Amino acid sequence: MLNLVLFGPPGAGKGTQAERLSKHYNLVHLSTGDILRSEKAAGTKLGMEAKAYADRGELVPDMLVIDIIASQLDNNPEAKGFIFDGFPRTTTQAESLDMMLAERKAAITMTLALEVDDEELTRRIILRGKQSGRADDQDENIVKTRINEYNLKTEPLKEYYSKQGKLYTINGIGEIDEITRSLYHVIDSYTR
Ligand code: AMP
Predict the structure, then answer these.
(1) N or C terminus of the chain: which is more exposed, having fewer CB within 10 Å?
(2) Considering the entire predicted model, what is its pTM?
(3) Which domains does the chain have, with CATH numbers?
């Protein structure tokens, strides 16, 4: 199995790259942000529970996203692998993911961290907000909260994966195609 974590701050390009990687390597793409947005649009209990947090730019409680991932793993027993996009975002989530995969005789293969500076992130998010209409991309204060949440709760996961010898850092600034090629290169060199 090839299980990849795509890691990076909001606006680093995780969604775009995850979609490409999932097609190229035939992996199931799991984006907790996308799942929460579709639950919210469908008006489910989960969507309503997550809404208040997501609307403020705060992370939702760990159990909500851990349960989402657990059921996605169960629903895809034939998967050749997964690409986790926007999950894990806290140490508790990372530990749960390791446990959930171990229970299924699997493990994270590698974590790919896309690096983009804060100034470029804010510029990209505001641009994306204009194009997609995502409310949490259009308000500068919400964007700031999301970047703070990342720095405080998610960034420490680099250390978590680096201790496991699984962290690979990729420059997330430049042409989208060029970044995709760097990702393929790192994955192929590791798995060959
Ligand atoms: P994203 O599209 O990945 O930027 O996620 C949008 C919002 O969904 C975030 O600002 C959080 O409120 C919530 N969210 C998505 N994934 C997670 C996660 N793994 N842990 C906590 N909250 C999350």
Answers:
(1) C
(2) 0.95
(3) 2-191 (3.40.50.300)
